[in-house]
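Q: Hi! First time doing this. I have a protein sequence and I read that you can turn it into a structure. Is that right? Here it is:
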Amino acid sequence: MLFLVDAKLVLLQPSANEHGELKYDMRVIAHNVEFYTLSREQPALNSPSSPLDDNSDNNYLPMGALGHSLRDSLWYFDGTSMHAWSDVLDVLSSALTEHGREVAPTVAIATDFYPLSAIVEKGLLTGLESDLVQRRDINFAFYRLNPRTHLSIPSLLRHHLAQYDSPAALHLSHSYQKLPYFNHALEVLLHDVLDDEVDTPPESLETALLPGVLSFLSSFPTYLDIVAGCTRKTELRSWKTLFRYLPPVVELFEESLQKDMLKTAGSYLLILHAFDEGSFSARQISTLLKRAREEGDWDLCKELARFLVGIDETGNLLKTVLVRAGLRDAEPNNSYSSDEDEHMMTSNGISTSNGAAVQTPDRSDGNSSGSIIHAGRHTGSSSQDYFAESARYS
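A: Yes, that's right. Below is the predicted 3D structure, encoded as structure tokens:
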């Protein structure tokens, strides 16, 4: 039995003494508790005919689909963070006084609002945020409450991986992988771990969590998308730490092409241009542009062309790439070399077909027109705006 008494979460367990008489062992398992909830006691959501239909606005997982992952999870709020035990049985087994064991560690999930409930089926925390409203037409101020949500999946997965329990992390992820925002949850997991290891480098490779997270993510078919998406939304200073445990960006680009993930390949081209200009060449862009033309992805062709104009305003590089991709006839007065090293990016700009150096324009304001969404790096050339995602991590 669980009781909340004087901000203490108390566990009572029945047992028998040496005379066979029933007794209750009491142990405080958490302090400063404002409220708690056991997921098994939560009412089941009304299930539609197709709970995981992508066209439905009410995507969720039936509690039975979670197996034993979080069906018996115990959650509580201590005024600072939401805490969770994945399985209350772990708490019961470790709370026996005669065993002398510490209570199993919790998963701490920090939020910038007041959490009210853990929706286990959706992998979310829900709560309220208060805003102070002041108006000139009234002589008093008031608070307005706004609903907020926070993903709990990344924190739960990180806890299992930090405990070197990859099977538990895989089991939990398989329970949620049909949710429409599951890939975003994996991106958040990678971003959070990367930020922490950049700010506080681990003492050794053995204590680093990032390699284990990358190994875990590689078991998903969207692995390349996750890495590219996280990289594009992360500061450039973090890229060196991330790619320390990854293959070269060129290999990730080629792997994306092999798997017909053209948009992802475009993202890796931008990463390559910003991170390893020595490996960036017009041949890679022309190959991607040719594949996009064959697939009829004209939006990608347009964005590739705008990217080339962004890094070479003379248009020479664009002409060369269009000829190689079969989208433009070669001009009779110009010869285009098939050398793999042609148009290699240098530290000062781009080497054009006539050997002249073109300075890469610096348009850090990121102003551009059309359908390009501005995200990614805050500084650098305008080419960083292309293929960017619609949001950055806060």
